[in-house]
C-alpha cells in the first residue's frame, strides 16, 4: 500500500509542476514566476526516479536506446559548448538534459511498477480535468482561448498526456465502470486543450483501436463515423480549432497565408530550414543554424536540425524509427506503448513537445520502458 501511495504521490507531484503559474503574471506562454521555482522540477524527477527506476546501473542497451542515448550525450555537449559562444537561443533544452540523466545510467523497474505509474497518471489527469473545468467556469484560465492545461501549463503538453492516458484506457486498462465513465472525460479534456494536433492524435488512436478490434468494423465505423463527425461534430468544435482547420485548408488548397498565425509560422519554419540548407549546407548538416546555441521552434525535428545539425539529429530520428518500426505490437501492454509512442512522435512535426517538462520523461519511459517480450501484465481498474 505504501508503494502504491508513493507512486500516486510522485505522479501527482510530477504532473502538477506548473500550478504555481496561477499565482504569478502569465501571458500566452510567458511567465513572471521567479526562476528558483524551476528547482521544483529536480524534485519531480527525483520522485519519478524512485517510482519507476531500479537503483542499479544499466547492463545492456537495445539499438533504439543506444541511438537515442548517443544523440542526447552529444547534443548536451553541443548545447553547452554553443551556449558559451552564442547568445541567441532557448534554455528549455535543460529540461531534456535533466530528464535524460536517469535513463542514461539506471534500469527501469519491472513492468508492473511502470503500469502502476500510468494508472496513477490516469487518475491525476481526471482530477486535473475537473480542476480545469472549475478554473474555466470562474474565468481564471491561463490562456486567452480558455485552453485546458492541467498542471503542465501548456495545452499541447496536456493534450498529449491526455492522449497517452486515452491509449492506456483503450489498450491496457481492464474494462470497468471507472474506465467507461472516465473515457468521455479524457476525450472532453483533449478537445478543450484547443490543440489541433492533439485532436488529430485522438482520432488516430481510435482508428487503430477499431482496426485492432475488427477490420470490417474499422471500415464501417470509419465511413459512418466520418459522415457523423463531418455532419454533426463540426458544430461542437471550439471556434479556435475551426479557425485553425480553415487556415490549414486555405494554405494547402490556395496557398493563403493570411489565416492562423500558428499555421503560417510553421510553414515559415520549414521554408527557413531549406533556406539554411541551401545557403549554409555544411554548417546546417554538422552544427545546426549559425548564431543559435539552441533553436527552439514549434517543431521538434526542426528544433533539433537547427540546434545540433542534421547528422546528429539522424541518431535521434533513427532511434525513434527503430522503436516504431520494429517494436512488437502483440499483447495489450505492447500495443499501449507503441500507440502512445506513435502519437507523441506525431507531435514532433508541429511542436517541440519533449522540450516541455515533464514530457521528456514520458517520451523516454515509453521508449526505454517498452516490454522486451510479452510479460503478461495484470490490468488495472
From TrEMBL:
The keyword Methyltransferase does not apply. Coiled coil: none annotated. Keywords: Membrane, Transmembrane, Transmembrane helix. The keyword Transit peptide does not apply. The chain crosses the membrane at residues 5-24, 36-55, 67-86, 115-135, 147-171, 183-211, 217-237, 301-324, 336-354. This is O-antigen ligase domain-containing protein. It comes from Marinobacter halodurans.
